[in-house]
Amino acid sequence: LGLSQQRVGLEGARLGIERQKLATEQAQLVQAEVGKIQNAANKANIVTSKVDEALGMLGGTTTGILGAVGRFIPGTTARNLKTTLDTIKANIGFDELNAMREASKTGGALGSITEREIELLQSTISSLDIGQSQAQLKKNLGEVKTKYEDMLAKAGMLPDTEYQEYLNSRR
């Protein structure tokens, strides 16, 4: 009887250790997922901030033909708008690449990507070309902002007041 109790005791201790390992692994997985959500929220906040910045620069001399020419002149608002749009497009492109990698079974099955493919990835939400009309660029920037606000809302990362404004804007 004593030997049997020792075996039960050892088996119970082994199960306790297994449970501890499992709990630790689960906690690590949860922590990794929370980190991914926080990183995505940080990027979404950067993009929405840059969209607001770009919207503030839209004007007759920063879009259309004047913007297309002005983007080459250092120190102009058109140049600043172009670089802000480049930042937004880069974030969109990286987000799309990461989504494709995560959807891939191997996680890296994309291989090398051409510059043209990157441009196409950057336009998956909407085209952001400084040569577009002011109205078109404003509409497209709004679409980008909506997508990233939706991401923040789904992640529950919008502050309460912004979340209420977001809900009200959808009505």
Question: What's the SSE blueprint?
Answer:
Elements (H helix, E strand, L loop, with lengths): L1 H56 L6 H7 L6 H27 L11 H8 L11 H21 L5 H10 L2
Helix pairs in contact: 1-3, 1-5, 2-3, 3-4
Largest sheet, described in full? none
What string, H for helix and E for strand, traces the elements in order?
A: HHHHHH
Number of strands: 0
Give the strand content.
under 5%
Number of helices: 6
- The overall pLDDT average reads 86
| Helix/strand/pairing category | mainly alpha
Helix proportion range: over 70%
Overall spatial form: elongated
Overall radius of gyration: 25 Å
Catalogue the unreliable spans.
none
How far the N terminus sits from the C terminus, by CA atoms, comes to: 72 Å
3D structure, described in words:
With 171 residues, the protein is an all-alpha fold. The protein contains six helices and no strands. The chain has helices at residues 2-57, 64-70, 77-103, 115-122, 134-154, 160-169. The radius of gyration is 25 Å and the shape is elongated.
Name some characteristics of this structure.
171 residues, mainly alpha, 0% strand, elongated
Task: Provide a concise account of the structure shown.
This protein is mostly helical.
